[in-house]
C-alpha cells in the first residue's frame, strides 16, 4: 500500500544536492501523468517542407507531452497552412521534457534536439521554466487578446481547458442518486461508507504529481477538503497513479466512483463506455491547462512564433475543440468542452489553476512533504474512525 | 554664447538669453535627474514592502522539526510578490551556516550586510535578470531550540519600473510647465530690461549730427552713467569746436592785418612818383610779407601738430645733439643781436624717442622768443634723469599768473612786439606730440625765464 511506502521512505539529508531532489520529485510527479503513461513507439512526427512555396523554407522543433493522436490533427492543420516549415514533433514524458530542456538551456546551437516550442501539462514545471527566464515573449494579436487567467507575461500560455471531474457508474446513480458536487460526494461517502468500501478510486498524491497538484490546490480552496480526504480514508479508497487506470477500473466494474479524473481523457473514454457518467462538480471544479511557451534559446524563433500564434488563433483552437477531446480556451469558441461553454454552465464554480507564483510553492520539497504527511494523516484518521469508533464519526 | 560671438554682431539680448537659459537648462536637467532618482526611490520603498511582507510570511512558517529546519511554504507569500506587472518571483531559505535549505533559486546573500536591521535589500543580477532582493535574518525561538536562518525573496523590477515611470511622468509634466513659465518670464524680463537701451539708441539716432547739446532722457542708473559719459564727450567736443572757431578767427585776423598793411602801403606808394619812396615802400612790404609768410608757416605747423590723426613716428635720438644743432642754427642771429648764446650738455648722450626737426624747431622758437623779449644771455641746457631740454634767459621773465595763458595761440605779452604769438603754442604742441611736459619757471639767477621740456620716462 502506498501509505506504507511513504512512511518508510528515508528522509532526505540536509547536505543533498537540490537538483537531485528536483529530479526525484519530477520523477514521482511525472511517471504517473496520464499523457506520459502510454509512451508509444511513434513518439515522433515529422513533416517535410514542401519546396514549391516561394517563402524560404525553415524548420521548427516542438517538444510536447501530448500523445501523438491528440496532437496530430493540430500539426496536420498547421502544416497545411505553413507548408514551407519543416516540422518535427517529439513526444516526451513531462519529466523528459524538463530534463531535455534544462540540459540544452541557454545554449543556442544547431542541435536538432533543441526545442523551439515546449508544451506540457506539468503546470508548475512549465511555470518555473518561464519564471526563471527560459521563455521568450509573443506579442501577436491573438497573444495580446488571450484571456488573462490563461496567460502569464506574454510568455506562458494555457492552450487547453480541461476540468477535473468525477466519473461514476450508472448503477451508483440509480441506487444513491446523482453526484453533482463535492458536497454530494462527501455526503455520499459518509452516508454509505460500508456500501462503498473499496469501490472508490482517486489519485495517490504521493506517487502522482498531478494528484499532488490537485491536492495542494484543493486544500487552498477549502478547508473542508480535509473532511473529504478523511471520508475517502474511511471508505478505504484505492489510490492509483493515472486517470487511465481509474477509467479502466470503472469500466471493468471494480470501482463505482472515481474522484479527480482528468476531464479531457474521461470525455473520450466515456463516449465509448455508456455505463459511465461524467460529472463536473458544480460547487467548484479545478481546471488544468496545458502550457506552451517559446524557448528563449529557440533556433527558429520565427517559426516558433508562427506555431504558438497558430495554437492561440481561432483556427488552431477550433481544431483542438473539434478534433481532440481537449477543451479550447479561445473565447470565440462555444462548442462542447470549450472554456466558454463550461463557464456558461458552471459560472464561478470553475477554478482554473492560476498561473501565479503559487505554483512555485507546489515544487517546494519541504512543502510537498508537509502536505503529504497531512494528507496521509487525514486519510488514516478517516480509516481509523471508521474502523474503531463508528459512533464518534462526525456528521456534516 | 560662442554662436552669438561667431555671428558677427553679438547681440546683448541673445547673450543675456544664453546666460540665463543655459544655467536654467542645467538646473532643469539636474531637477529631472533628481526627480527620476526620487521616483525610483519612492517606488522601491513601496515595493520593498512586498518583499518585507512576503519574507515575514515565509519566516513565520519556518519551524524546527525532526532535527532540521522545516518550512510549510504558504503559496500566498509568493503571490504577494507579484503585482499586475507579473514579476518573476524567487525565494530561498538558508540556515545559519549558509547552507541552502529549500527554495526556487539559489539566491546570493547580497553585497553587504548592514548589521542591526533584520531586513535589508539589494539590487542584484541573477542569471541575467535584474532582481530586487530582500533578505530577512530570523530566528526560531523554541523551548529547546534556537536556530538562526535567512529568508531570501526576490522579484524582477517591472512593477517598480512602471511605478517609477508614472511618478516620473507626473514630475516631468510639472517640470515642463515650470520650464515654460521660466523661459517666458526670462524673455519678458530681458525685453523690459533692454527697453531703455533701445530708447537711448533711438534718441541718439534721431539727433541732428551737428547738435552737441547734452542728451536729456530718463534712464536707469547703469544707462544714466553711459548718458553722462556721452554728455561729457559732447561737452568736450563743444569746447574743442569753440577753440577751433576762435583759432580760425584769430588766424584770419592775424593774416588780414599784414595783408591790409601791404595793400595800404602799395596804394600809398603808387600815389607817389619818387622812386626812392617806392624803394622804401617795397622794402617795407618785403619785410611785412616775410613776417606774414612766417606766420602762415607757423599756423601750418601748429595745425599739423594739433591734428591727432597725423602723428609722425618717434625715433630714438640724442637730446644733446638736438641742443647743439639748434644752438648752431640760432648762433648767427644772436651774434648779430649781441646776445650771448651757450649750450650745456652732459657727457653721456641723453636718449629719448622723438622727431628731430620738431624738437629743433621748439628750441629755435624758445631761443627766438628769448631774443625778441630782450634777453642778453641765453643758455640751452640738456639734463638727464629725467631727460629735459631747457632754455634759460635773463630777460624780463613772465609773471607766475601769466604762465598758463601765454601758451594759448596769438597771446602776446607785449602787443607791440614783432612776434606772432604762436611760438609757445607751437612748442606746447610739440611737447604734447612727444608726451613731454612744458613748464615755465623763474631763471636760476636773476629775473629771467626758464622754459623746460621734461620728457616722461615712458619712451615707447
Automatic annotation (TrEMBL), chain A:
The keyword Transport does not apply. GO terms for cellular component: outer membrane-bounded periplasmic space. Keywords: Signal. PANTHER family: PHOSPHOGLYCERATE TRANSPORT REGULATORY PROTEIN PGTC (PTHR30006:SF25), THIAMINE-BINDING PERIPLASMIC PROTEIN-RELATED (PTHR30006). This is Iron(III) transport system substrate-binding protein. It comes from Modicisalibacter muralis.
UniProtKB/TrEMBL annotation, chain B:
The keyword Phosphoprotein applies. Residues 250-457 form the Histidine kinase domain. It is an enzyme of class 2 (transferase). SUPFAM superfamilies: ATPase domain of HSP90 chaperone/DNA topoisomerase II/histidine kinase (SSF55874), Homodimeric domain of signal transducing histidine kinase (SSF47384). InterPro entries: 2CSK_N, HAMP_dom, HATPase_C_sf, HATPase_dom, His_kinase_dom, HisK_dim/P_dom, HisK_dim/P_sf, Sig_transdc_His_kin-like_C. Signal peptide: none annotated. Pfam families: 2CSK_N, HATPase_c, HisKA. Its EC number is 2.7.13.3. It catalyses: ATP + protein L-histidine = ADP + protein N-phospho-L-histidine. The chain crosses the membrane at residues 175-197. Gene3D superfamilies: 1.10.287.130, Histidine kinase-like ATPase, C-terminal domain (3.30.565.10). GO terms for molecular function: phosphorelay sensor kinase activity. GO terms for cellular component: plasma membrane. Residues 191-242 form the HAMP domain. SMART domains: HATPase_c (SM00387), HisKA (SM00388). It is found in: Membrane. This is histidine kinase. It comes from Modicisalibacter muralis.
Amino acid at each position: 500500500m502506498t501509505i506504507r511506502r511513504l512512511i518508510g521512505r528515508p528522509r532526505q539529508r540536509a547536505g543533498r544536492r537540490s537538483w537531485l531532489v528536483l529530479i526525484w520529485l519530477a520523477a514521482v510527479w511525472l511517471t504517473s501523468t496520464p499523457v506520459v503513461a502510454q509512451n508509444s513507439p511513434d513518439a515522433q512526427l515529422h513533416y517535410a517542407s514542401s519546396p514549391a512555396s516561394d517563402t524560404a523554407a525553415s524548420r521548427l522543433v516542438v517538444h510536447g507531452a501530448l500523445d501523438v493522436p491528440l496532437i496530430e490533427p493540430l500539426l496536420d492543420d498547421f502544416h497545411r497552412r505553413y507548408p514551407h516549415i519543416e516540422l518535427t514533433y517529439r513526444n516526451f514524458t513531462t519529466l523528459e521534457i524538463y530534463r531535455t530542456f534544462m540540459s540544452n538551456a541557454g545554449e543556442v546551437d544547431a542541435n536538432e534536439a533543441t526545442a523551439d516550442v515546449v508544451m506540457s501539462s506539468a503546470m508548475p514545471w512549465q511555470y518555473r521554466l518561464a519564471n526563471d527566464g527560459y521563455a521568450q515573449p509573443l506579442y501577436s494579436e491573438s497573444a495580446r487578446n488571450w484571456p488573462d487567467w490563461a496567460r502569464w507575461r506574454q510568455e506562458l500560455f494555457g492552450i487547453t481547458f480541461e476540468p477535473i471531474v468525477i466519473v461514476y457508474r450508472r448503477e451508483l446513480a440509480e441506487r444513491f442518486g446523482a453526484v453533482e458536487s463535492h458536497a454530494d460526494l462527501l455526503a455520499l461517502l459518509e452516508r454509505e461508507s460500508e456500501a462503498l468500501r473499496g469501490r472508490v478510486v482517486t489519485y495517490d498524491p504521493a506517487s502522482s504529481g498531478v494528484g499532488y497538484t490537485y491536492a495542494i490546490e484543493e486544500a487552498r480552496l477549502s478547508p473542508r477538503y480535509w473532511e473529504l480526504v478523511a471520508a475517502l480514508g474511511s471508505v478505504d479508497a484505492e489510490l492509483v497513479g493515472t486517470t487511465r487506470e481509474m477509467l479502466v477500473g470503472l469500466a471493468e466494474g471494480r470501482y463505482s466512483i472515481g474522484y479527480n479524473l482528468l476531464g479531457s481523457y474521461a470525455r473520450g473514454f466515456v463516449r465509448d463506455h455508456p455505463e459511465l457518467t461524467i460529472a463536473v462538480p458544480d460547487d467548484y471544479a479545478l481546471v488544468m491547462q496545458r502550457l506552451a511557451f517559446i524557448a528563449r534559446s529557440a533556433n527558429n524563433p520565427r517559426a516558433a512564433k508562427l506555431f504558438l500564434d497558430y495554437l492561440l488563433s481561432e483556427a488552431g483552437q477550433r481544431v483542438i475543440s473539434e478534433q481532440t477531446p481537449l477543451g479550447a480556451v479561445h473565447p470565440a469558441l462555444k462548442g462542447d468542452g470549450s472554456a466558454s461553454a463550461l463557464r456558461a454552465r458552471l459560472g464561478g464554480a470553475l477554478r482554473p489553476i492560476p498561473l501565479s507564483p503559487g505554483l512555485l510553492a507546489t515544487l517546494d520539497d519541504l512543502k510537498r512533504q508537509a502536505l503529504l504527511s497531512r494528507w496521509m494523516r487525514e486519510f488514516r484518521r478517516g480509516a481509523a474512525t471508521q474502523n474503531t469508533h463508528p459512533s464518534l464519526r462526525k456528521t456534516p | 554664447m560662442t554662436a552669438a560671438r561667431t555671428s558677427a554682431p553679438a547681440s546683448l539680448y541673445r547673450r543675456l538669453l544664453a546666460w540665463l537659459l543655459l544655467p536654467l537648462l542645467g538646473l532643469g536637467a539636474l531637477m529631472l535627474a533628481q526627480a527620476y532618482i526620487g521616483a525610483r526611490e519612492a517606488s522601491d520603498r513601496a515595493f520593498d514592502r512586498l518583499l518585507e511582507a512576503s519574507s515575514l510570511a515565509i519566516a513565520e512558517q519556518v519551524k524546527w522539526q525532526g532535527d532540521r529546519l522545516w518550512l510549510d511554504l504558504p503559496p500566498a507569500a509568493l503571490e504577494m510578490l507579484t503585482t499586475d506587472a507579473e514579476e518573476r518571483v524567487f525565494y530561498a531559505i538558508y540556515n545559519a551556516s549558509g547552507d541552502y535549505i529549500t527554495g526556487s533559486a539559489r539566491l546570493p546573500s547580497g553585497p553587504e550586510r548592514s548589521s542591526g536591521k533584520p531586513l535589508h535589500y539589494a539590487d542584484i543580477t541573477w542569471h541575467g535578470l535584474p532582481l530586487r532582493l530582500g533578505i530577512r535574518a530570523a530566528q526560531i525561538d523554541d523551548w529547546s531550540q534556537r536556530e538562526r536562518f535567512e529568508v531570501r525573496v526576490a522579484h524582477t523590477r517591472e512593477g517598480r519600473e512602471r511605478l517609477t515611470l508614472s511618478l516620473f511622468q507626473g514630475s516631468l509634466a510639472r517640470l515642463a510647465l515650470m520650464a515654460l513659465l521660466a523661459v517666458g518670464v526670462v524673455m519678458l524680463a530681458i525685453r523690459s530690461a533692454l527697453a531703455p537701451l533701445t530708447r537711448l539708441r533711438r534718441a541718439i539716432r534721431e539727433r541732428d549730427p551737428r547738435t552737441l547739446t547734452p542728451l536729456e532722457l530718463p534712464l536707469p542708473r547703469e544707462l544714466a552713467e553711459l548718458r553722462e559719459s556721452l554728455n561729457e564727450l559732447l561737452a568736450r567736443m563743444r569746447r574743442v569746436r569753440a577753440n577751433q572757431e576762435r583759432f580760425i578767427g584769430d588766424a584770419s585776423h592775424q593774416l588780414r592785418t599784414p595783408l591790409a598793411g601791404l595793400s595800404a602801403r602799395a596804394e600809398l606808394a603808387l600815389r607817389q612818383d619818387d622812386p626812392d619812396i617806392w624803394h622804401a615802400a617795397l622794402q617795407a612790404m618785403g619785410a611785412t610779407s616775410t613776417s606774414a609768410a612766417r606766420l602762415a608757416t607757423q599756423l601750418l605747423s601748429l595745425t599739423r601738430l594739433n591734428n591727432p590723426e597725423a602723428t609722425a613716428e618717434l625715433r630714438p635720438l640724442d637730446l644733446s645733439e638736438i641742443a647743439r644743432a639748434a644752438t648752431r642754427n640760432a648762433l648767427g642771429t644772436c651774434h648779430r643781436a649781441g646776445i650771448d648764446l651757450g649750450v650745456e650738455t652732459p657727457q653721456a648722450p641723453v636718449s629719448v624717442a622723438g622727431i628731430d626737426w620738431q624738437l629743433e624747431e621748439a628750441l629755435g622758437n624758445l631761443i627766438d622768443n628769448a631774443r625778441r623779449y630782450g634777453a642778453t644771455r641765453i643758455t640751452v641746457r640738456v639734463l638727464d634723469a629725467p631727460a629735459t631740454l631747457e632754455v634759460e634767459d635773463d630777460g624780463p621773465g613772465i609773471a607766475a599768473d601769466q604762465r598758463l595763458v601765454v601758451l594759448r595761440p596769438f597771446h602776446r605779452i607785449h602787443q607791440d612786439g614783432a612776434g606772432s604769438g604762436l611760438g609757445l603754442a607751437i612748442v606746447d604742441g610739440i611737447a604734447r606730440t612727444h608726451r613731454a611736459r612744458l613748464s615755465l619757471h623763474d631763471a636760476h639767477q636773476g629775473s629771467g625765464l626758464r622754459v623746460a621740456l621734461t620728457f616722461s620716462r615712458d619712451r615707447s
